[in-house]
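Internal tracking record. Fields below are filled automatically when a chain is submitted to the structure queue. Please do not edit lines marked as system-generated. If the sequence contains nonstandard residues, flag them in the REMARKS field before resubmitting.
Queue: standard
Priority: normal
Entity type: single polypeptide chain
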Amino acid sequence: MSEHRREDVTLDEAIGALRADEAPQLLADAAAARVWSRLDPRAVTTLDAIRGCADVRALGLTYERGDLPEARALLVRDHLRECPLCRAAVRHPGAPRLAVLPWRREAAPAVPVTRGLRRYALAASVLIAVGAIGLVARQAFFAVPPGSRAAVRSVTGALHRVSASEISVLAPGQEILDGEAVRTARGSLAALRLSDGSVVEMGERAELFLTARGQDATIHLERGSIIVQAAKRKTGLLLVASGDCTVKVTGTVFSVNRGLKGSRVSVLEGQVRVARAGAGDDAVLAPGEQWTTGPAVASVPVRDEVAWSAEVDRHLALLGEVKALREAWRAVAMPGVRYESHLLQLLPEGAVVYAGIPNYGEALGEAHRLFEERLRESAVLRDWWTAAVPERHGDPGLAATIEKIRTFADFLGDEVVLALASGTRHGGLPVVLAEVRHHGLREALEQEIAAHETEAGRRPVVRIVGDGDGLDLTAKADLFVLLRRNVVAVTPSREILLAVAGRLESAGPGLTGTPFGARIAQAYAHGAGILFAADLERITTASLRQAQGDPRRAATLRQAGLDGLRHLVFERRSASGDEAQTQALLAFAGPRRGIPSWIAEPAPMGALDFVSTNAQAAAAFVFKSPSLVLDDIIAVATAGRPDARKGMEELEGKLGFRLREDMAETLGGEFVVALDGPLLPTPSWKLVIEVYDPVRLQESVQSLVSRANEEDQGRPGLRLSSEQVGPRVFHAIRGERHPFELHYAFVDGYLVAGPSRALVMRAAQVRESGSTLASSAQFRALFPPDRAAHVSALLYQNLGPMVGSLLDAAGSVSAQTRSSAEGLAREARPTLLCAYGEEDAIRLAGMGGLFDLNLGELALPMLLERAGRGTREGAKP
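SYSTEM-GENERATED OUTPUT FOLLOWS
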């Protein structure tokens, strides 16, 4: 025990000696300096080795002051060029610029809050007073006057006007005033036509009233279901207020159902914006999407929500009639191809635009006869045409217009040529040429001019020059018509008319003697249906000549590579069966450069392996290096602008990464966007981009999201998340305050993105399975025959199957209507347009479907446009 005691005493003595010992002042000062150097951020930081991002960020402030040794500063600078996250962290205090870029001047010190307080208070008082006066003036002078807001279009059952003192029955045609409530009875339906042309269908026991304030109109839905066909509005919005939500639209079709538990909004066409009352959480809905005000109101199929309406069935029945029309139009004999043109040599050498079109007069007349015949047989088509007939919209009658075209076309040959001639005193002016195949054209023209004088009250000055007339054209005229040697030429220019007359008297080559004319003649040698050509070399030369006084514009044209354009030739000619082959050639005076050089030469497309055989549409491209594309964009944007480079540096500083090194250089040249999957309720789009450095690209995305949130006044607008699922990491960018989601993953050297993780996973599975669009025999059969094994770009569509999903979303339809619509879908054929990048040209080729410009395809958009207009406007009883 004594021995242990002695050891304790010895230890206590040693501790006491240490406590009493004092270090020399020199040693104490050195130790304090070492500690302070580690605590003071302004002190020079030294590290034995730079092992990673943490060491670089520790040296950041020292690097900014330039106090690092040159060798160590070189290591830090090299790391900052490679790591966007470190560049985003190493910044000058208070400046949103990267450390590797020049610093912006420090802002002037802020004015103290107390300074100028009275002045700010006075300014605020003035603003409040002005605002109050403006509000009073708006209500007094600009408020919508009271009056009619809608008219009853139709009623099935009973529609009542409801007020505090009485209930009255409304009949079709009666007006509904501002603020008046209307209600449908049990088992009743009604349709209202608003003053802006919108149509509101009311289900049974529905109640609403209408108001208008300023440029906006509001439907106040008190209860029940309505379907709104909103008209296009030039100003203001149409709103539906349902107590617990508000819908804002213009030019769309949607339904609102308000019940005891809440409201449900469903979209059939277009796009709507809906907001929950008092919450401020706006949502944007696309066709087929649905939104409810709370969990107590569950979502239902859109077809069930609108099943009580008969309008959808009527629209789909009209589609069946369109199918029958297209089948009838296909029997119309179309003009054949032409292997030469006698009109080409009559054009002056200065022509820069040329269009040769077959004489469709006879075919157009036959197509209209078939339409009139179908109109008499079909009640659905007849009812639609009654609402959409052109005469009701102030247009000339369709039958009268077609009859005039057919009458004059009967006098003409197989081709009509439209050209634009330059080099005249007034610049480029048009001329129309055609051969005359029988007499009587002059008399028909004079008769039409006289009739025009009777209808309009003013006779246009038209000078007709025939075979026996002189060429003294000193008198003024609105239009000159040359009728000589079985040729008619119509132009507003005396100079062009004299040039054409001179070509008729001489045997010279005319336009055919120029390289542009020779290229047009070459197109005829292969057989031409529709032919369009433009002398881009002369057009761009004239533009550069005009830009001599504007160096910036001239520099932009040259940097864009547009000064190297030569010719554009578009050809459409018949192929096998009832299809046609479409080709276009954009030729250059030398190797492509600038924007035209972005499309690479034909090459394999691996990105298409992520697109399935069920895709409705796809666009695929092979670009040259994206970094070179970015260089061209910057060169065009900064051409003639000395301060533009500084603006690019500021943009990169705000983004937190370098566009070229951290974005463009990480990408390859392949790019695919496709609609691959169900269209409703959310379109199944996908984006596939070739990636060379996915790690660096992901770091740039993280930096971009971070900077975007910093710029949003501290309120994060985007959220980036990542999750490991099996062998892959799936990333998602979501909007915190907006309904936005983007999901993506890096798969086998490609970035695959879509609106949901499931779609991205399916895209990867498609590639693994090998059942891809690129390997489909049906897809490959669409390629035009040529010697190229690959393409530079392509556009593909197969929209026929989409009709089925639209039928499902439309609601309950009759068996006959469904059969007609499905037949229309079966008839629709997929199409493909290909592009080939060559050294000095870009060539396009496509076959069938969308590119088969037969008369039915040309007339169908006009009829459908009439249908849309007639459906929205409706017909008053």
